[in-house]
Design brief:
The complex is a heterotrimer of chains A (396), B (276) and C (229). Chain A is mainly beta and 396 residues long. Chain A contains three helices and 28 strands. The longest helix of chain B has 57 residues, at 181-237. Chain B starts with a helix and ends with a helix. In chain C, helix 3 runs antiparallel to helix 4. Chain C has helices at residues 40-47, 88-98, 104-113, 127-139, 157-168, 170-173, 184-187, 208-214, 219-228; strands spanning 2-11, 14-24, 29-33, 55-60, 73-76, 145-149, 176-180, 193-198, 201-207. Chain C has a single domain, classed as 3-Layer(aba) Sandwich (Rossmann fold), CATH 3.40.50.300. The mean pLDDT of chain C is 89. In chain C, strand 8 (193-198) and strand 9 form a beta hairpin. The chains are: A mainly beta (396), B mainly alpha (276), C alpha/beta (229). Chains in contact: A-B, B-C. Chain A binds chain B through residues 3-4, 6-7, 10-11, 13-14, 17-18, 21-22, 24-26, 28, 30, 58-59, 75-76, 78-80, 83-86, 96, 100, 104-105, 107, 383, and chain B through 8-9, 12-13, 16, 64-65, 130, 133-134, 136-137, 140-141, 160-166, 168-169, 177-184, 186-187, 238-245, 248.
Amino acid sequence: MKRYWKIITLSVITVLVIGAFYINSSLAAENIVVGIEKVSGNEKEIENIRINGDLSGNDIHHSLLISKDKTINLSNQSLIEELTRTSTVPAYNQLKEKYSHFMRGKSYLENSLYADENFVVYVNVEGNGNVSKNMYFEIEVLDVKTDKTTSMELDVPNDDNYHWVEVMEVQSINNEIKVIARGFRTESGEDLNVYTIDLDKKAVSDETIYGSPKIENGWSDIRVVDEYYSVEPKKYLLFQVYAHEEPAYEDAVEMGEPKIIEDEIMVYNIETNQLKKLEMSPEERGYGIDSFAINDTTIYIPNQSPNGIEVNQYNIENDSWGEKQIFKVEHEKGEHAPFIELQNGKIYIISSVDGKYPLAISDLNTGQSLYEGTLVVKNQKKEQQDYKLYIYEINN
Amino acid sequence: MNRFLKLVNFEFSRFFKLYLVLVGITVLCQMVGVIFEARRYVGRANKAIYEDLLSKSDFISQYGTMSFFRFSETLWFLGPIMLAGVTLLIYVFFIWYRDWFGKNTFSYRLLVLPTARLNIYLAKATTVLLFVLGLIALQLLLVPAEMQIIKWLVPDELRTDFSIATISNHYYLGVLFPMTIADFILIYGVGIVAVCVVFTGILFERSYRLKGIFLGILYAAVSILVFFAPILVNELILRNYFYANELFYMELGTCLLTLAGAIWIGNYLMNKKIRV
Amino acid sequence: MIEVKDVTKKFGRKTVLNGVNFTAEKGKITCLIGINGVGKTTIMKAIMALTPIDGGQILIDGEKIHKGSYEKITFIPDTITMLPQMKVHEAFMFMADFYDSWNQKRAEELLEFFRLKETDRISDLSKGNTAKVNLILGLALDVDYVLMDEPFSGIDIFSREQIADVFTSHLIEDRGVIITTHEINDIEHLIDKVVLLDNGVVLREFDTEEVRENEGKSVIDVMREVYRA
């Protein structure tokens, strides 16, 4: 036994040291917890809230997913957790849980999914970027009640006009599948098309909702207000058409400003195929179309005002502008802008004041405050005192 | 079991001196390095603050604070780790070839021991594992020592302290020192599988000589394919049919399969095909 | 008894053993004779499973070789098979560690007989002394069969005499020995059986005592006969 002292010593030390390290790791538990402390209002408002934010400072950066009862540190996941995680998106995970067989192979394509009580529909364009092949729709429909899946492949009509067709939205209305897609024209510009798919006849009819102008030297595109992760039924689609011409160059110096050819915001009724232009001045557009939100039949347009945010309402069906609502925001100067999100008829504002992060949820229609609270970084370590929380997404 | 342990001890003793050298270099290089780097930082800070009259906070926003992680990116720290890595890599081959090409062909002796020849294979693999883990343990002892030295040499305001557990988050350190014990077993387990595949490849060469080199490489390629089969099939043929957690378990399965293959084939070669 | 039955072996395209058949009995000294490269060493390695065979069968006491067989049979090759940096006593300790049949007392006796020291380092020994230590490593095992490959090759006369003495001693008495050598003169009087090899086959397998009595020939006489035929 004495002869073996070297190997025994090394083995014992190794086991002890590595064991101690992992016991320490699990006890020390680098768990950052961001709590939501209520100041006033209805706690139900934050019941299912999910806030994505970064806690960073000193070259260290933690990506956090904050919800009412727990905080997930996406930067601090173990390898096994990372390897086995499919998605952090609730809409996707709900579908995966309910229809796990149907959802196979459909992880990254939320734009291509639609779900209601009767059907789950998936439509995507294959053959993009493939010069020799035609583009075609890959279609799968799950009948929830019978648990039967219908699948088919149908050619994209007029695909010669485009070198790329990107699905923006899939909706099922009156037993018809409507696919709204952006076609990138082989010459310049983009078309926003609606493809109506008849499953029984196995036919696709197409119609161009709007085409952006053809520009020789400049920019021409269509930007769709994209509600990420939304697979729900929708009535309206909001988009912006924009095109400008580059100014002339003389001796590699720009002569003048780009000339704006077109810059319109449009609302499209998916059911009736009707198009309506939204008349707004550039100032009224506020932060731009990406900040607009549609809830049911109302479009909300946020804009900066001296003390906060003013939100303009436009009722699509009545074609009328509603009352402007103003939401006060207190925010420390010099910090990045407060986080604002309009979702489901509510406005979420997270600002940064004195190292604290107030959260305010208000009703967009009435302007009333629904919930007020503060995001607090609990158990903040001494070395993390100067860390700043930066929010970039909210889902509820 | 008894003879197996004796073989492990035997292989261990053969490498021990070189191992101590690696340990010594690591300790020396990292200890000298941390003192050097800490002092250099403070020196630079002093120069900037007292000579160039930069304010402390300006200095920090320009150069950053001194922290263990800053030190961990220097060659003082990384050099010994890379040296150890290369040495162990060479040793995976050397541990076999030494027995044939050493001054006295020791492979004769090993192969006529009254023990299953597989024990020779497993003893060599165990020895490699023991040495790797030993170096990991060494590093885990050095890190807090280095952190303490930085604490002693660098004033508070210029310093950022971290707890030891945070090394699991830092780039490549997280591979050597993963966050959970399950991750640890996963990573080093895969490492052992790789070592066994190399071992069996070596045995192909020792059994068939020139033809064996091709067979060994072919075997290794097949092993890699088997290992990655679930991922490859899922992505290339099945268009991501399987969910991530399902894929994970399948990969665990093929990992074990690859290990079993390496050991089974190695055993077969050692018993039926090997020559001294 | 060691039985070599119809053993064939190729090295690349060259067929070295082409159906070799012979037996070696316990209590007898069997000598394999043939020109350099005929495959004597190969046969010995094959018996010890140190090289694979392509055809045929080798049985030791009726069994195919397995790990326990190594407590019954040992191979003393023409070079020492112990780590050069080991001292003699460390080599002995290694053998004692792994072999139940290691006889430490006998090892020490032989060491004394050869006038060597435990503390000698193997790499420092002369060629003759190295061969002697090599012998001890084989003979100090209480095995039934001992295979010796060229035990006298390159050894000085006096060492050779010492080694030859071992053959007459109790150390060899009850064991089965297979030996290959060119120096038949030194041990002709000790050999019980001769196996003549040529071109991958056994040309003649005979008992030396019988042949001497019945045919009046010495081993070398028979060799001349067979090889010149």
